[in-house]
Each structure stands twice: as C-alpha cells, then as structure tokens.
Amino acid sequence: MVEFSSWDILRNLLLAARWTVALSLIAFVGGGLVGLALLVARLTPSVALQRFVSGYVQLFQGTPLLMQLFLAYFGIALFGINTSPWTAAAVALTLYTSAFLAEIWRGCVASIPKGQWEAAQSLALNFGEQLRHVVLPQALKIAIPPTVGFLVQVVKGTALASVIGFIEITKAGTMITNATFKPFVVYSFVALLYFALCYPVSLYARGLERRMNASHR
Amino acid sequence: MRITFDFLAILAQWPMLLKGVAWTLGLTAISAVIGVVVGVACAWARSDGPTWLRWVVGVYVELIRNTPFIVQLFFIFFGLPAAGFRLSPEAASVIAMVVNLGAYATEIIRAGLEATPRGQIEAALSLALNRMQIFLRVVLPPALRKVWPSLVSQIIIVMLGSAVCGQISTEELSYAANLIQSRNFRAFEAFIIATAIYLALSIALRRLLNWAGARFLF
Amino acid sequence: MRPIVEITALRKSYRANEVLKGIDLKVQKGEVIAIIGKSGSGKSTLLRCINGLEVFQEGALSVDGQALRHDSPTSMRELRQRVGMIFQNFNLFPHLSVGRNVMLAPTLVKKKVKGEAEAQTRKLLERVGLAEKFDAMPDQLSGGQQQRVAIARALAMEPGVLLCDEITSALDPELVGEVLRVVESLAEEGMTLLMVTHEMSFARKVSDRLIFMHQGLVHEMGPPAELFANPQTPELKQFLSSLTD
Amino acid sequence: MRPIVEITALRKSYRANEVLKGIDLKVQKGEVIAIIGKSGSGKSTLLRCINGLEVFQEGALSVDGQALRHDSPTSMRELRQRVGMIFQNFNLFPHLSVGRNVMLAPTLVKKKVKGEAEAQTRKLLERVGLAEKFDAMPDQLSGGQQQRVAIARALAMEPGVLLCDEITSALDPELVGEVLRVVESLAEEGMTLLMVTHEMSFARKVSDRLIFMHQGLVHEMGPPAELFANPQTPELKQFLSSLTD
Amino acid sequence: QTALDDILKSKEIKIAIPTDFPPYGFVGTDLKPQGLDIEMANYIAAKLGVKVELLPVTTANRIPYLQTKKADLVISTLGKNPDREKVIDFTAAYSPFFIAVFAPKSITVKGPADLAGKSISVTRGSVDDMELTKVAPPATELRRFEDNNATVSAYMAGQVQTLATSAQVAGAMMAKNPAMGTEFKFVLKDSPNFIGVGKGEDKLRQKVNDIIAEAKKSGDLDKMAVKWLGRPTGELPN
Ligand SMILES: Nc1ncnc2c1ncn2[C@@H]1O[C@H](COP(=O)(O)OP(=O)(O)OP(=O)(O)O)[C@@H](O)[C@H]1O
Ligand SMILES: Nc1ncnc2c1ncn2[C@@H]1O[C@H](COP(=O)(O)OP(=O)(O)OP(=O)(O)O)[C@@H](O)[C@H]1O
Ligand SMILES: [Mg+2]
Ligand SMILES: [Mg+2]
Question: Where is the ABC transporter domain (chains C, D) (predicted)?
C-alpha cells in the first residue's frame, strides 16, 4: 500500500483546489450573466416573462444541486448531445447560481423606493433608461455585498461537482481517505482549505457591507 | 436514445421512497425547530451578550458558514468518536443540520434585530420593561417576522442539503433513491423522481412555513 | 382657447375601491390651480393620472389636445415631456450630483448635447437659488434645497404643465418658505400649475382657482377668495373649520 | 410643596457637543408646561434626560424626591413607572394589537392579572375615544389614532408625570386636533405634563407655564400669555415672528 | 451496436474505474488511480491496440456513464444480478471477489445468525449489501453507507461493531490498524467481478470476452490477481 505523509495529503488537496477555484469562477461569471438577464426579464411588465423567471428560480432553488449536476451531465447526453464535464458543470452551476443571484438582485432592486421609478418615469425616461440610469446604479451598490457573500456558497457548492468526475477538494479528500484510512486528518485539511478559500471572501463581503452602511448614514 | 425509461421500476419501491421522505421531513423539522432556537440565542449573544460570548459565537458562525455541510457532517460522524462521542447516523445528521442551520439563522436573525428602530426600544424602556422583557416581547417578534422569509429559505436549503446525510447511512430521500438505483441500475429514473419529490417538498414546505409563520408566530 | 389639460368623466379604481368617481376638469394655459381636500379624497391619484403614473378605467384625459394612451409607450413619453411632476419626498436620484440630476432627462430624452444641457442646468439652478450646488450630492442638501433641485429637474424638460403633490409636506416648517417662493415665481411667469397643498394661505394667495375634492369628486371649485369666504357645501365648511381648529 | 420634578444645573454633552448647558427647573404636581424653541435647542434631549433615556454628565435630577441613578437598573425602572413618555412617531409595537400594546407593561411590570389589565385597558381606550379598536393592529389605524393609543399605553402605567415630545408633528393636519383634545383633557384632570410642541395656539391655551429654550438653556420662562404678548429677549421675539411668517 | 467500431476508429477507449476500493482501484500519492481494475483496463486497451482514457466513477454514477456512452466499459468491482442485466450487459468474470464479515476478536460471530442485535456496516447497493440483506436476521442493525470509504471509516471510528466488505479491503484496513484487533469472521459470498458493457453492444462484449478468455489461458489474469490480491483468481464464471 501507498503511504501518505501529511504533506502529500495537503499537496494533493492544494492541487485539487485549483479545480474548485476554476469551477467557482465559471459558475460565478456564467451565473452572473444569466442572473442579470433573468433580473431584467423579471422587472419587465410582461407577465409571461415574470412567470418564467419565478418558475426557473423555484426549480433551481427547490432541488438539490447534486441532482441538478447529475441530470445536466447525463441528462443532456441522453438527447445525443455529448457534453464534457466542463460544459456540464458550467451549465449546471450557472443555472443554480443564476437562480440565486437573480433572487438576491431582485431584492436589491425592490429596495429602491418606488418614487425613484416614478420620478424617472415622469421625466419621460423609457424602461431601459429608468433601469440603466436610475435604478441599477443604486441597486448595484447595495447588491455588491450579498453578491460577494454568495460567492462563498458557490465555492462550497462546487464540492458536489465530483459526481460528474471533477476531482476538486472534497473528491480528492475522499480518494485520499480511501488510500490512507485517516478520515480525521484528511477532513481536517479539507475543512481548513475551504475555510482558507471562503473566509477571506466572507470578510471582504462584510467589509463592503459595513462601508456601505457607513456611507449611508 | 438507446435507453428506455422505466419509472415504474422506481415507483414500485414506493415504501422505500416514502420512508425516505419521512426521514427527510423529520430531520428537517427537528433541526428547523432547534436550529432557529439556537439562532435566536446566538443572535442575542452576538448583539447583547458579554464580549467573550460574542467572540465564541462569532467563531462558531464563521467556521460553519465557511465550510461545506458535508465536511461538517463527516467530522461529526467520523471525527467525534475519536474524542469519545459516539453518535448514531441519525443523531449525527440532526446535530450537523442543527449546527449548520443555527449558524446561518444567527446571522439572519441578527440582521433582523439590528433593523429594530431605536424608538421601539426607547418606548419599551420608558414603559419600565427590563432587558429580557424588551428582547423577548418587543424586539424579537417583529425581527423574526421581518426575517421569516430568509429563515424559511435557509430551512429549505438545509432540507436540500440533507441529501448528503444518506452518505452516512441515514435513510433519507436521496438514500432511498440511491439504494433503489444501485439495486436495479435505473439511475435516471431514480434521480428524476427524487428531484421531483424534492421540488414538491420545498414548494410545500415554503407554503407551510409562510402560512404557519403568519398564523402562529406573529 | 383650447384648454391645455382636459379631463372628462375620469374614473379610477384600485380593485374594488373606486377612488376617482368621475372627474371633469379643464385647465387653461397659464392657470394656477390649487387642489385641497381631506386625506384619501383622491388628490394625489388625480395628479398621478394626469402624468400617466396611474392607469384609469373610464373617461378621457388629454394634454395639449393629445389624448393619453396607456398602450403606447411613445405617446406616454411625449405626454410626460409636456407634463412635469414634483413629489412630496423630492425623489432626487441619490447617486447623481445635483447638476446630473437636472441634466439626465434632457440629455437622454431630448438628446441635448452636454454643453447645452449644462448651460441650461446652471441657469435653472440659479433660478431656484442653488447656483453653487451644481456638484453637490443630494444628501448634502437640506430638504428645502432638495425640493428646489427637484423643481429645476422638472423644469429642465420645459413642460407645459407642472404637477406638484404636497411638495412642502415633508419639509421642516422653516424650510417651507424657500420652496413656496420658487413656486410663486413660476406662477407669476405664467407656468400652468396644478398643485395639491395643505398650505391654505399660500393657495389663497397664488392660485387662480381652488378645487376642493371630496370622496373622489370635485366637490366645489372657484376663485379661492370666494371659496374660503363663502363655502357652499357643509363638507368644505367642515374641512376649513378643521384647519383653523 | 415638594416639586414632582426637580432639575438642578443639568449638563449634557454628546461627545464634544454640549447640548444642555445647565438647566434648572422645578415642576409642581399638576402643572402643565409647554417647551418651545428652535430645532436643535435641546428640547428633546431635556425630556429624554428626565425619562432616563439619556445619560447626563453633570447636575442632578429627581422625580418625586427620588434622585435618578443611571447605575441601578431597578431604580431606573422605578423612575420610569413614575414618568411616562410619548414620542413623535408613536412607537407602538407593530406586532401587538392595540389592546395588547396597552396591557403589555402593566402585566409584565406591575404583574397585573389579565382580567384586571384588560378592564383597565378598555377604560383607557374609551377615554382616548378608541373603545372599539381593542383588537385592531396598529397599522390599521390612522396616525392620530395611533398616537392616542400611545397615550393610553403610557397612562396604563399610572405615571405621575407625562412627557410629550412633539406628539403631533408626524400627523396630518386634520388629525392633530383629536390628539390635542385628549392631551387637553388630561391637563384638565390634573396630570403633570411636560410637552415639547410647535402648536403655539395650543400651548398658549393649555399650558400653565411656557419655556423657551435656546442653545441648551432655558432662555425665557413664564405664563404663556405674557411671553407671547411681551417677549423679553430678541431670540424669543425672532422665534415668534418666524412662526407667524 | 457501434461501440467497438467507434473505439477502433478513434483509437481510444473510455473505461470507468473505481478510486475508492483498494486494492481494486485507489490512488497513489500523486492521486493517479492504480489497482487491479486499472491494470485490467490498461490490459484490455493494449489488447485492442488503442489508447485508454480512465474515468474515475462512484457507485452512484458508474452506470449512467455507460448508458450515456461517456464510457465504453465499466471495470469497477461490478457484480452481476438479473435486475442489473436488464439495464446493461456483462462480460465474463475477470477477477474474484470474496465478501466476508469482520469484527474485533472480542465479538463472537460464527455465522449470519450471530449478527442479530449487532450493528454492521456495508456499502449501499454493492453485492455485499444484497447478500447481507438476504442472510442477516431481521434483528441485525444494517448500516448502509454511500461508498466503501465511508463503510470502512464507520467501522474504524467505532460507529458500528462489525463490517461486511471485500476480503482484500479488510486486509488493507487491518494492516493499517492492528490496534483494533479485527479478525475475519465468515465468508458471505464469493461474487466475482464482471465488466459492464452497454446494453446490446454484443460485438464489443464478444471482443472483451475473447480477451478475458485469452488472458485466463495465458495466465495473465492470475498474475494480476497475485499481484494485487495476493492469490490466483481461482474458478471464474463466464
Ligand atoms: N396604490 C394604491 N393601492 C390601493 N389603494 C390606493 C393606492 N393609492 C391610493 N389608494 C387609495 O386611494 C384613495 C385616494 O388616495 P390618494 O393618495 O389619492 O388620496 P389623497 O387625497 O392624495 O390623500 P393624502 O392627502 O393623504 O395624500 C385612498 O383611499 C387610498 O387608500
Ligand atoms: N444621539 C445624538 N448624538 C449626537 N448628537 C445628538 C444626538 N441627539 C441630538 N443631538 C444633538 O443635540 C442637539 C439638540 O438636539 P435635540 O434633539 O434635543 O433638539 P430639539 O430641540 O429637540 O430639536 P427638534 O425641534 O429638531 O426636535 C442637536 O444639535 C443635535 O444635533
Ligand atoms: Mg396624497
Ligand atoms: Mg426634538
């Protein structure tokens, strides 16, 4: 049998952390773009679009990410479209992230007083201009802290990408445990690594929030 | 497509699925109740408690919020025995869920507490209420009402997260689906059905909690 | 002369609650109209209908001879270029400086070039007594100053009609005067004004016509001096007496 | 007779900003005192000090002969049972019905049994003209009604002194009257009242003594008719003239 | 029906292998998979004359890999039963697999009947699980875990009293944890491993069967078994 030193464990987990980071970035960028589109669709007066968005959000917030990943990877292939793990992970994580971001951002937009919309409307701005010049700039400012905070959830969510063959931190941890029979040590390192990745992001989000609240007073 | 779906092969195992649903709901119910209580207590400690307690609660909240649930679960089940705590898988699952929800609930409820208008506290003070009375009777109820939707969302996230509890042999819904599919290899059918059940559960749970919150809590 | 605002049999409900129950009103160019009435009588709703912020169910409304059509965004935008509105709580855009608040609509909607819009803005800010605040942010201003910026912002679109909905209600008493003086100067220069107000002495001094609304209807209407001195209906009598209480 | 409130050389600062600069004031049982003055002159701060909501740095303050001691929560709670306070924005507890708002403190603090507290509450609500609102929630009430509930809530603790801080400032003009009528009836029944107000005609009518505060000091004090007719200091003159402007 | 042609045309075969099942499939310090199943995968690819792409899979997703053609073969300690045969096809067996029950010396377990009232961990959905479910008395506290790793970890953490797993896995575990005093109790089943092929891919199945038969004859299969399991394959069903 192979012998793992602590350094071997840590080194392998660190290498696997690259995938965690890469997957998180993909999820975040993809989810951000789709989330923005969903947000705009949700804000338009079209009832059909609003229904679609709320159904979408309900679907992806109401089912385990694990199942979403699985069905994206294998489900798409069932229709004869061959997907690489990267595409599948990108698709599934984007769907998942966008649903949450769209909700977060909708909350931010909703917190802009109605009077702002009305003032913009009474100045004859059209819907796009109201959104672009009046509402979004204000919403963006309050949206940044919760958005950065959600990044932490995304990082943790990538732990589940192992079902479609990604060897990220958690999967690497499991594999190493199998070879070492030292779950306690390995999972300590795994937890530590996630904490090291997530905590600075959390702190940053909190700092942003504090700064924003301070500037509001 | 070269495979044919056979959903009946899964649905035929309905007693197993039903048992899974019961476990999922049971775990969620217990951990929601205790988790929210933990959240209230910790939120109070964080905004009103002594400095050392604030610090302890702060560390707890940060540790939990910045590590994945599955790692926490493995720690409690595989790691704690080394320290002399031996827990059944079900107990370990509940504890992991409570600990996890408690940390998030702390932050959510704290936000609600902080949003309390100063005037509410002053009005209560000028009516000669003491600190505990003010917290429990004046500050907490509106704060809970304000953050109830976020709490409900978090409870649902925890319910969906409980899908990994099957990995330590707690017989919840995803465990049932996995067990069925590992016997007959009908993975798609099993996961699609499980996903649909999860969706139904989260919609129903959100309705129920929103209704119950409005009806009983406030 | 064709009235600049013409309202015929206007009815508006929020669900089952009918708020405007058939309003008829003609406003001539240059007229100054003050609207008074109890809370909930529909004053704000009427102004918001004229500006197209609310959709009404029955009746017709035209500004400058153009009928209001809710289904056409273009015609709505044209309407709003003719009708400016000022709100109780200012609704300045907090992320834009005073100057950019005023310039936003002219550059976007009227496609004014920057230099031209800026020159206009400086002139308007001077007119409302805030020439030196061009680069200030709204939250650095007092309420009265903010409201004067809001007036300048509405004027920048060169509207034919200006709607004012209790524009001094959110102000500390000592700041009311500075806003009213600006409105008075607008009235003197011939701007068509429709204003909801609780400042009776101001309404009496400035307006050409006073409208008393009650339960969604124009209950009494006429020259202010007459209405104050000699109210015809018991409702107006009671309303006026409640004020001097 | 021993004064019910006695304030001696009271000084209070927010950091470097001294807000009260040495207040001396004796209030007799049953006296009605109106406090007027410009924004920022320290009127609210004075009331808040009497209720123990603010900690002051120098001087002494006693109610009913008991000195105020910030370090003892029990004695603070006793003080507050003797001194009721009503706020500008009502501060009703939004999650409790009107009845339970009023009953909360008597049951928790005075340990009244439910039946007794309820009977008292119904009587108080009748007194402020809201007998039928026992089960209504605060947000279903108008501002004037909410403020009257707040008065009932304060009265439920049977305080010896009632502090009112601009209790009609957040109300629509037509709702002011109903609140003032309740306060007036309290004054007539012999309640000791200290009220900050902008309603000069009311202050003149109801109060026994008028206090004009200016820059953290009691600048002028006396019977209201006298002060209004014949202000001694230029500051009060200016203040009064700014109001009739 | 085209899998074999596709493989030969693209000169590449995709094979799903385990990484949580020493000594059949596990990772070295470089996280590269190794073990009997991996060697078997390489062996088949070499015989076909194509490159191999190894796909690490879990118990839960190995069959979908095959069904969606993401993998051509599954070599992952796969046991055969009639239910499973409805979904995929199996080749001949390529390696032995003994499932046994293990426990500390202090606990007396002579046969299935002795399991009554005791807790036992097993990997969910494995052949071990199915066999144990069949023979264990109702009073047994059966604990089914997600993967082999969790099964063994639960036993080592003391969360269960006894353990049902492959003899080889237990061997590795006992070597690492002599302090627990674990010993072999009784054999549950001799359940050899098969290679999974997509349903109806008869040409590929035939080809793999030929390779296995040849390897059996040449002794390559035995050599592999000796290297990883410490003993020859013994009788294997076809
Ligand atoms: N968005 C809305 N949804 C439902 N009802 C509304 C809405 N806005 C106003 N109302 C109702 O319409 C009626 C008239 O309201 P409106 O705001 O026009 O009164 P107002 O005369 O302006 O009163 P105030 O002096 O308080 O501003 C009121 O009964 C009010 O409750
Ligand atoms: N919490 C606080 N922190 C710092 N400064 C304060 C605080 N509260 C009040 N002040 C300052 O104390 C001074 C007096 O305030 P106070 O509220 O007593 O005035 P006031 O006479 O009640 O005015 P108003 O008529 O506007 O209510 C003001 O200059 C104010 O800025
Ligand atoms: Mg209005
Ligand atoms: Mg004040």
Answer: 5-240
